[in-house]
Amino acid sequence: MGDVVEDEALRAERLLDAQAKAVELFAAVEERGILAPGVRETEASDAIRDLAGDLLGIRRYWHKRIVRAGVNTLRPYRENPPDRVLGEDDIAFADFGPIFEDWEADFGRTFVLGDDPVKHALRDALPKVFDAGRAYFDALPDITGEQLYAHMVQLAHEAGWEFGGEIAGHLVGRFPHETIDGARIASYIAPGSDQPMRRPDRGGQASHWILEVHLVDRDREIGGFFEQLLDLGPAAAQS
Q1: Which residues fall within 8 angstroms of residue 28, CB to CB, at 6 or more apart?
Q2: Residue 193 · residue 201 · CB < 8 Å
Q3: Which residues contact 197 (CB under 8 A, 6 or more apart)?
Q4: Residue 51 · residue 59 · CB < 8 Å
Q5: Considering only CA atoms, which of 134, 126, 128, 118 is closest in space to residue 210?
Q6: Contact 35, 29 (CB under 8 A)
Q7: 176 cis-preceded (ω within 30 degrees of 0)
Q8: What digits encode the pLDDT tens for the residues 56-111?
Q9: Read out DSSP for 133-195?
């Protein structure tokens, strides 16, 4: 195990600063109406990328940029569904992993274009489920990734939805952070991740986590997505 190379308070500050910039970016996305009827998912993704460059100087991303709408909101991250045009009464989400001065953010939010009450209810449920998952994490000092994943599935069901994600989050840190791949299940909040989440990383420093909430209604063919830092920062309802 290597020596700690950075102050933990400084690491947390930089991760929170990266997330704050992602919050600023997504607020600008909404203000400028980038996710609008008639726009293709790829066009919206490119527009967010360009806005991030102009507004915040972001040029790098540590994972693929995602904008998904309508039936595509059912599909998990690893899939690449056909490009879709946003409709008049659509639900859509954006999932971006920008790098700010070598620090990673991973941020996802859901947008409803029309007045459909079910879609609004789905969007509004996301931060509540997130906060309930965070409360469970806070209450169990030795919680594992698989325990938190199972609880997120339960919370989704209790809220009247299905949990659509194969994972419920992952490690995050300085780019490039500790390897995240299928061979390292301990890097994920997922079935089979049986190590305590509050453990030192390979450099001997605190592990920091992103929590993802993907709620779906398969009968209505809609889904929503929400993600941000799990162990740092305010509750979702305050961010």
Answers
A1: 51, 55
A2: no
A3: 137, 143, 144, 145, 148, 189, 207, 209
A4: no
A5: 134
A6: yes
A7: yes
A8: 877 776 566 789 999 999 998 888 899 999 999 999 999 877 676 667 777 899 99
A9: HHHHHHH-TT-BHHHHHHHHHHHHHHTTSEE--S-SEEEE-BSS-S--STT-GGGBSSTT--S
CA distance linking residue 25 with residue 182, whole number of Å:
30
pLDDT tens digits, 20-70: 888 898 899 999 999 999 999 999 999 988 888 888 877 776 566 789 999
d(CA 104, CA 205): 16
Whether pLDDT at 2 is above 70: no
Tens-place pLDDT, residues 223-236: 999 999 999 998 88
pTM here is 0.90
Task: Output the six-digit token pair for 41.
Answer: 């998912």
Strands 222-229 and 208-217: antiparallel
Separation between Cα atoms, residue 18 and residue 156, nearest integer Å = 28
Q: Do 34 and 96 form a contact (C-beta atoms < 8 A)?
A: no
In this structure, are residues 7 and 207 in contact, taking their beta carbons and an 8 Å threshold? no
- 32 closest CA partner among 47, 19, 42: 47
Q: Could you tell me whether strands 169-172 and 162-163 are parallel, antiparallel, or unpaired per DSSP bridges?
A: unpaired
